[in-house]
Design goal:
The complex is a heterodimer of chains A (about 325) and B (about 300). Chain A has about 325 residues and is mainly alpha-helical. In chain A, strands 1-2 form a two-stranded antiparallel ribbon. In chain A, helix 6 crosses helix 11. The longest helix of chain A has 30 residues. Chain A is globular, with a radius of gyration of 26 Å. Chain B has two domains: about 70 residues, no CATH class; about 230 residues, Orthogonal Bundle (MetI-like fold). Helix content of chain B is about 75%, strand content about 0%. Chain B contains 16 helices and no strands. In chain B, helix 4 packs across helix 16 and helix 5 runs antiparallel to helix 12. The longest helix of chain B has about 35 residues. Chain B is globular. The chains are: A mainly alpha (about 325), B mainly alpha (about 300). Chains A and B meet through helix 1, helix 2, helix 3, helix 7 and helix 8 of A and helix 2, helix 5, helix 6, helix 7 and helix 10 of B.
């Protein structure tokens, strides 16, 4: 009876067109209305505002009324000496971050996976995951406290070995290391969860077979664990490579000071300062647009390459 | 007999492995734990012990002076209240929006599913940027209001994907068909079947939104202008990072900091007080968080 009705319905669906389908499930479209309105207003409407990157925007004249200037601001950006410096800083910081943040979570995940003592395993997992919940403001202020040349715990510890105190936050050459490794400290536990999910998905038979062959634990990790989590690694890599030009505004902005400006100015902080502090909105929008387009191309390219190489892609 | 067996099977290299493994994990735990314990200990130490750098691991000259002082700062409590308000309202809006997008997108009956999916997914790849979004907030007349904080982030493609994946994988299609046969509409299915079965994912998504709203300062920096609307993170930034207590909104703090030289200990107290709500709640919600990350990682 039920089967009959379902089949009848399927036949009906095929016979009638789009509108019958829509009418039969009109409530789904009503539900979808709220997120559609929100995404249209807060995500797509600003895309229309991008045209001010090609105009001389003045708040008085509005977006429509302002005069077109074509590529003036793009040319201005690329002919300034600052552009290379900023793009370079952005790339170096995010690539360094990307490379440093891959191995640690993987090692942590494998180590946790091999730990037989459940209580210890749970405690390590809980502790290493915790920093993920600490806000960027607090992380950066912890960095400032810890690296303080007088009271910072890092200088106190290195002082025990007779190493003279260093004002790490005030040294440009330390900026990248502090940024990247505090990031690893904060997110390694979170990242490990993802790889542990992949590790638990490995078929048990593989380990059985390895056991029969007398493989050691090192060998099992090398020949089973690592190859099996490779797809997950490549997905994480695509996700992160696609964000290479999108390095987070929040943390970099907080860590900036006069001493590290030469290496810490990245695209997002520059866009913010030009646009909303100096109120040169058209110039800022132009730089932002260039950045977004580069990002989009990067995501698409990395995705295509990954699909060809390993059959794993995002879309 | 049993013990002997395992002993024989355990080659030396595996025993070395186990030792190395214990060392790695202990090291990882200490590296994460020590800074946190250090901050907590400093916050409970006497100001002069902190200023003299005598705290290493445990509180020196145990004192709650820092906490008592912070209790008296009205600005910090107002920031706390604002953050709480933005977190609750923003989470409610975010979760409702996520369900309202994920549920229809998980139903095969929705025509144009692919197009709708693309509409949401594309926002992960491309956006209008800082200035156009700022202009929009101004044009909508929500600049310097709570709505500028809670509305712009309410559509999160990532959260929608996580929830949609959960619906698709955990709610049998037979249930939909049975409900339809009983004359239940799509609203009814959502409220009487889908939501009651989705407690775990609702918890996960609420947590994602709540943590994000509590911790971020970006939208407040961009879209708020009045002191009395600032969330906690902005106030923390001014005190902890810009080291700026001279602003008139901090006049009470400033006087105190100058007079008694308690600045150092106050910073540690502020770090603890502001991170406490999430770190205390965290062990209880951890399993949901782990679940959420896993659901998301299955189908990024």
């Amino acid at each position: 009876m039920a089967m009959g009705k379902t089949r009848e319905k399927q036949v009906q669906r095929r016979r009638h067109g789009l509108w019958q389908d829509v009418l039969a499930h009109w409530q789904l479209y009503v539900i979808l209305l709220l997120p559609l309105v929100l995404v249209a207003v807060f995500n797509y409407a600003p895309m229309y505002g991008i045209i001010i990157g090609f105009k001389d925007f003045s708040p008085k004249k509005g977006i429509m009324g302002s005069d077109w200037v074509g590529l003036k601001y793009f040319i201005q950006f690329f002919s300034s000496s600052k552009s290379l410096n900023i793009i370079g800083n952005t790339l170096i910081l995010s690539l360094y971050s990307l490379v440093a943040s891959i191995p640690v979570p993987i090692i942590l995940a494998i180590a946790l996976n091999e730990m037989n003592n459940r209580v210890f395993k749970k405690s390590v997992q809980m502790v290493t995951y915790a920093p993920y919940f600490i806000s960027t403001v607090v992380i950066v202020s912890m960095l400032i406290q810890f690296t303080d040349s007088r009271l910072g715990i890092i200088n106190k510890l290195t002082g025990l070995f007779g190493i003279p105190a260093v004002n790490y936050m005030g040294k440009a050459e330390w900026f990248r290391h502090l940024y990247v490794w505090s990031g690893v400290w904060q997110s390694a536990g979170y990242g490990a969860v993802i790889y542990m999910a992949a590790l638990t998905g490995i078929p048990f038979e593989l380990y059985e077979a390895a056991k029969i062959d007398g493989a050691s634990k090192w060998r099992k990790i090398w020949s089973i664990d690592l190859p099996m989590i490779l797809p997950t690694v490549s997905i994480m890599l695509i996700l992160n490579l696609g964000q290479v030009m999108n390095i987070g505004f929040e943390k970099v902005y907080l860590m900036q000071n006069a001493a590290n400006a030469q290496v810490s100015e990245v695209v997002s902080t520059y866009v913010y300062k030009i646009g909303l502090v100096k109120m040169n909105m058209s110039f800022s929008t132009a730089i932002n647009l260039f950045n977004s387009v580069v990002n989009l191309v990067l995501v698409a390219a990395v995705n295509a390459i990954s699909k060809r190489l390993s059959d794993t892609g995002l879309f | 007999m049993e013990r002997k067996k395992t002993k024989i099977k355990q080659p030396t290299s595996d025993r070395v492995f186990d030792v190395v493994n214990w060392i790695i994990l202990t090291f990882a735990m200490l590296v994460v734990l020590y800074p946190l314990v250090y901050i907590l200990s400093c916050s409970f130490s006497a100001p002069r012990a902190v200023t003299a750098g005598r705290v290493w691991l445990y509180p020196v000259e145990f004192s709650t002076y820092g906490y008592e002082t912070v209790l008296g700062f009205s600005n910090i409590w107002r920031g706390y209240g604002n953050s709480l308000l933005y977190m609750v309202v923003g989470t409610a809006i975010g979760v409702v929006t996520t369900v309202a997008a994920a549920y229809p997108l998980s139903r095969k009956e929705l025509r144009g599913r692919k197009a709708f999916n693309v509409i949401f997914f594309f926002t992960m790849l491309f956006n209008g940027g800082i200035v156009p979004t700022y202009l929009l907030i101004q044009n909508l007349n929500i600049y310097d209001t709570m709505w500028a904080i809670v509305l712009p982030g309410s559509v999160s493609a990532w959260n929608i994907i996580v929830m949609r994946t959960f619906f698709e994988g955990n709610i049998p299609v037979d249930l939909y068909e049975a409900a339809e046969l009983d004359g239940c509409g799509d609203f009814g299915i959502l409220f009487r079947i889908v939501l009651p079965l989705s407690g775990a994912i609702l918890a996960v998504i609420s947590l994602f939104f709540a943590v994000w709203l509590w911790n971020s300062y970006y939208s407040a920096l961009m879209y708020l202008a009045s002191d009395d609307k600032y969330p906690l993170q902005i106030i923390l930034r001014q005190i902890l990072i810009m080291n700026d207590t001279s602003n008139k909104m901090f006049s009470d703090i400033d006087a105190l900091v100058r007079k008694q030289g308690v600045k150092d200990v106050l910073k540690f107290v502020l770090i603890v007080v502001s991170s406490l709500p999430l770190l205390v709640a965290y062990p209880f919600v951890q399993k949901y968080f782990v679940k959420g990350v896993m659901v998301g990682s299955v189908k990024g």
